[in-house]
UniProtKB/TrEMBL annotation:
Annotated membrane topology: Multi-pass membrane protein
Domain Major facilitator superfamily (MFS) profile: from-to ranges: 39-467
InterPro entries xref list: MFS, MFS_dom, MFS_trans_sf, Sugar_transporter_CS
Transmembrane segments: 38-63, 75-96, 108-128, 134-151, 163-187, 193-212, 284-305, 317-340, 347-367, 379-400, 421-439, 445-463
GO molecular function term, any single one: transmembrane transporter activity
Protein name per its UniProtKB record: MFS transporter, putative metabolite:H+ symporter
Domain of life the protein comes from: Bacteria
Subcellular location as annotated: Cell membrane
Length: 472
């Protein structure tokens, strides 16, 4: 080869190196509702039904307690097995999505929680019912991390924060629909119809096949560049972008899938090790934020009706106040989506979560000081909590999903989510049997809030802001 040929090849390589990667192209595409918007809507509907199924637990406990004459301890298993399934599913499905792809994993999680919830309607006894609820929870646990990874990897960098934050807006919508539809069905039928309605999410699979391609960022990350290029070209044409060339980033050879149970256990252990090895500080931040913020939220959501009943309110009044706290969260999600690109991920997460701590502790203090009445101040504080906590949670999901690289995004989010599931599963027992009776309501919420303060400090010291950054 002549020196002029070498110089020509070197020049070509240099020009190629200046081209954008697959991730760069997707990050720079204009937003189009018929393209990325369709993916957001399908993902959002999946998220909505996920919330619907989670909310079912609260309605099923009293309904099945009457139907099968359950004790309080037996009825508790209805929620417990579902939560355990969600905790396991959160990290298992994250790893699956990093191996088989976002689209396939999202489809399977939807089918899993939809079919097993509907099968629960055919249960002859509480134990078979709990078995079905475990597998429904297993699918539920994977839906959120896989959904976020899928939608996030199609979203342009300029809009990704708002898109991922708005995705969480489907949660209070799903929980609210669950309440109204369940109440309507129970007025003329029984609990089995409430379960059977959840076969509807299975039909979303057709929407996924029609409107959601596999993530080209995932395909590129595992070396399937030809497939990724086809999808990127389609996205470029559909959005009217003027990009004509991009380069293929180098990827490591994929590891062979384990064939034995010992190999699978080793793979899961290795997955955790990979997350902590990749970045111990960022994984510590992700886990601490997930555990503390969601612990604060579920502590209020789970115990508020009983707290209000202890104050002398009847069931209907207690449920209405709890519903008001949840409903105002819809406005919080909207505010979160509108503000996140201006305030930034870290600032918005810190301010909203700390405001939630202040509001909840203030609510408890006013409530205990007022005696048997629910004062206007206490009611206002619990509504403030419902508003700001739903600013914090979507921001949390967006921030953590952006901290990890593509090869670890779904599993990183999934493990952080799983850690929070286990924590929120244990917390109700500790709350009801020890903390509240011994420490009182104010100190119990203050102790829970101290965990949030600690997590925010860790974020400020150890983690960077992801606002405006392209996914890698």
């Amino acid at each position: 080869m002549s020196s002029s040929d070498s110089r020509s090849d070197a020049g070509t390589l240099a020009q190629r190196a200046e081209l954008p990667t697959t991730a760069d192209v997707i990050a720079g595409l204009p937003w189009r509702w018929r393209t990325q918007g369709a993916i957001f809507l399908v993902g959002g509907l999946g998220f909505m039904f996920d919330a619907w199924d989670v909310a079912l637990n609260g309605f099923l406990i009293p309904l099945l307690s009457d139907h099968w004459s359950l004790t309080v301890g037996q009825a508790a298993w209805i929620a417990t097995v579902n939560l355990i399934g969600m905790a396991i599913g959160a990290f298992v499905w994250g790893g699956i999505a990093d191996r088989i792809g976002r689209k396939k994993a999202f489809t399977l999680t939807l089918l899993c929680f939809s079919v097993f919830t509907a099968l629960g309607a055919l249960s002859p006894n509480i134990w078979i019912f709990c078995l079905f609820r475990f597998f429904a929870g297993f699918g539920l646990g994977g839906c959120i991390p896989v959904d976020y990874a899928l939608v996030g990897e199609f979203s342009p960098a300029k809009h990704r924060g708002r898109v991922l934050t708005a995705l969480d807006g489907w949660w209070p919508i799903g929980a609210t629909l669950c309440a109204f539809v369940s109440a309507w069905l129970i007025s003329f039928t029984d609990w089995r119809a409430v379960m059977l309605i959840m076969i509807v999410p299975a039909f979303l699979v057709f929407g996924i096949r029609l409107f959601v391609p596999e993530s080209p960022m995932y395909l590129a990350s595992v070396g399937r560049h030809d497939e990724a290029d086809v999808i990127v070209r389609r996205l470029v044409r559909a959005t009217g972008s003027d990009v004509t060339e991009w380069r293929r980033a180098e990827v490591a050879a994929p590891a062979a899938a384990p064939g034995t149970w010992a190999g699978r256990i080793a793979a899961v252990t290795g997955q955790i090790a990979d997350l902590w090895k990749w970045s111990t500080p960022l994984t510590l931040v992700a886990w601490s934020l997930f555990v503390s913020i969601l612990l604060l939220y579920y502590a209020a959501l789970t115990w508020l009706p009983k707290i209000l009943r202890e104050q002398g309110l009847g069931d209907e009044a207690a449920f209405i106040v709890t519903g008001q706290m949840t409903a105002v969260g819809i406005v919080g999600v909207i505010a979160s989506a509108l503000l996140i690109e201006y305030i930034g991920r870290r600032w918005q997460l810190a301010l909203s979560s700390l405001a939630g701590v202040v509001a909840l502790v203030g609510f408890a203090w006013v409530l205990e000081a007022s005696g048997a009445d629910l004062s206007a101040t206490a009611q206002a504080l619990i509504l403030v909590f419902g508003f700001v906590i739903q600013i914090a949670i979507p921001t949390l999901y967006t921030y953590v999903s952006e901290l990890y690289p593509t090869t670890l995004r779904a599993s990183g989010f999934g493990w952080a989510s799983s850690a929070s599931r286990w924590a929120t599963g244990i917390a109700p027992l500790a709350f009801g049997s020890f903390l509240w009776p011994v420490l009182g309501l104010t100190w119990t919420f203050a102790l829970t809030g101290a965990l949030v303060v600690t997590a925010v400090i860790l974020m400020a010291v150890l983690a960077h802001d992801t606002t405006g950054r392209e996914l890698d």
